[in-house]
Write a structure and sequence with these properties.
It is built from 11 helices and 10 strands. With 286 residues, it is of the alpha/beta class. The protein folds into 2 domains: 145 residues, Rhodanese-like domain (Oxidized Rhodanese, domain 1); 119 residues, Rhodanese-like domain (Oxidized Rhodanese, domain 1), CATH 3.40.250. The protein has a 5-stranded parallel sheet. It has a 5-stranded parallel sheet with strand order 6-10-9-7-8. β4, α4 and β5 form a beta-alpha-beta unit. α4 packs across α10.
Length: 286
């Protein structure tokens, strides 16, 4: 077990109050599916984070920031405090399945604030398969903790790549872009969500599902390291920029690189949906 991943048994063994547990289940095709799933059963004491409302600020879509723009750090900290979080309290995030894309997004956002977080390996599926307790009641709303309210740190801007920086980096060849979407979307054969198909020029493809074993858990660190090094061909992790459709599943690849001991990569948060918001930008297919 690493400090980035927690298995179901280890989560169940945590003492009450040792961590804030956050249910991040979400379905991009049915935005309220995660809320319904949470109501039907969740890890005891867990709160629910809605990707659109809690981990994004959809009012900023018109700014070319993609389908899931990051919220202001202050708004995110406020949401955490209403869930009962305080600075330094570890967070354990889980998703509906092994993909853990929403959980990885929350993990990454907390990392941007320098706060401890881990992902439940195997997600809700692993918890349910282990026959561990489930709860249907929603925790009562909590009064924001004063210690959390005075926590005013901003997101680490060095870990985020914006569009102007990415355009400059593509021109001078200083980055290696890794696209986490499914191969057929990367190749431009299908595009079910965004207005244009294809990928950012020069991007390589590493579907986030490739980080998982046949049982739906993350592959061992040594295997992840070998696979990522083969893809990157000796590229310094600090030059790696992750992308996907809207800055969510790319966090899964970022987490996988951290598990592999390849720290320092960054995220192009607007991702493909932000890139194609300007029709003048070049795209590649195939």
């Amino acid at each position: 077990m690493s400090d980035l991943l927690l298995d179901a048994a280890a989560l169940a063994a945590l003492s009450a109050g040792a961590a804030l547990v956050v249910d991040c289940r979400h379905d991009l095709g049915d935005p309220e599916a995660g809320t319904r799933a949470y109501a039907a059963g969740h890890v005891p004491g867990a709160v629910h984070a809605h990707l659109d409302r809690d981990l994004s600020d959809l009012s900023r879509r018109a700014e070319g920031l993609g389908r899931h723009p990051l919220p202001a750090a202050s708004a995110f900290i406020g949401r955490l405090s209403h869930w009962g979080w305080r600075p330094g309290l570890p967070v354990v995030a889980y998703d509906a399945h092994a993909g853990a894309i929403g959980a990885a997004r929350l993990w990454w956002m907390l990392r941007l604030l320098g706060q401890p977080a881990a992902v439940l390996d195997g997600g809700w599926s692993a918890w349910a398969a282990a026959g561990l307790p489930q709860q249907r009641e929603t925790p009562a709303p909590r009064t924001p903790r004063p210690a959390a309210l005075v926590f005013t740190r901003d997101f680490d801007s060095h870990a985020i790549v914006d569009t102007p920086e990415l355009e400059r980096s593509i021109r001078d060849g200083s980055v290696c872009i890794v696209d986490a979407r499914a191969p057929e979307r990367y190749r431009g054969e299908v595009e079910p969500i965004d207005p244009k198909a294809g990928h950012i020029p020069g991007a390589r493809n590493r579907p986030f599902a490739h980080n998982l074993d046949a049982g739906g858990r993350f592959k061992p660190p040594a295997q992840l390291r070998a696979e990522w090094q083969a893809l990157l061909g000796g590229t310094d992790p600090a030059r790696v920029v992750h992308s996907c459709g809207s800055g969510v599943s790319a966090c899964h690849n970022l987490l996988a690189m951290e598990l592999a001991g390849l720290a320092g990569s960054r995220l192009y948060a607007p991702s493909w949906s932000g890139w194609v918001s300007d029709a003048r930008r070049a795209v590649e297919a195939g």
